[in-house]
Amino acid sequence: MSNQIIFTSEAPAPIGPYSQAVLAGNTLYVSGQIALDPDTGELINENITEETHAVMKNMEAILRAADFGFGDVVKCTIFIRDMGQFGTINEAYGQYFKQNPPARETVEVSKLPKNVNVEISCMAVKN
Prior knowledge:
This protein has 127 residues and is of the alpha+beta class. The protein is built from two helices and six strands; from the N terminus they run βββαβαββ.
């Protein structure tokens, strides 16, 4: 089985030596996404709700590029800078997983790339 690198211009280009996603067999591994506008490279972080939606839209673009969707996501990891924002992030995030939400952990960290407030990665599986 060979791995397939997934790239779409509809999501931000990687800011380091990694791929947006890697498809290994029927499993897609999506790298952590932050709220960068894919067209301008500017951060979308006026508030945590807007920032979370931007992250999820970037993730959605990558999933779509590999012919996956949020219904295929089995696991997410959320990194946040302030656990006090958990409820607001959770509310925005939850809008993308209306039924059968994936497994998940949420971890507070001291710093994230470009000093964003939230970064989310996921794994998706096609049966």
